[in-house]
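Task 17 of the worksheet. Students: predict the tertiary structure of the chain below and write it out as structure tokens. Keep your answer in the requested format; marks are given for formatting as well as content.
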Amino acid sequence: MNKEEQVMIGFRDLYNKMTSLNSVKIKERIKDFKPYKSSEIHCIEYIGSHVDSNVTKLAESLYMTLGAISKLTKKLIKKGLLESYQKPDNKKEIYFRLTSQGNVIYKVHEELHQEFWERDKAVFEQVPVEHYDIMLDFVEMYNRHLDEEIKKTGVDITNRDDFE
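Model answer:
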């Protein structure tokens, strides 16, 4: 097995382990709420941390189509987690903000991120600072490559796993 294959397998294994560990905690923490899909949670997370979120910004951030975001936000509004609004100077654009119920989900999600960080920070503390630049360069280069492949192939990457 060459180095490239080892890196790809390593990334996949890391991702799968993180997802498995994190999903157990997430399911445990949100069990008192309605079951939410990961796309719904990620939408809530984005809106909670970005003022004046709109369909375009959400689609770009979540790698979803405008139509998928439109359906997702309508569903979240119906569930009472989001509300839409318009600015007085721009009646064309529709923006979203969290309701108090949406903020509860957002805060739980943020607490979980902090727990995950606390769990994993011991590893990051062992990494020499100069290694971060190399890793970040690689991640950025690989992201650019995947962005180009997504554009070329027109792949719809809206498929998300459920937390249910």
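Marker's comment: Residues 159-164 have pLDDT under 50 and may be disordered. Residues 3-117+129-153 form a domain with the Arc Repressor Mutant, subunit A fold (CATH 1.10.10.10).
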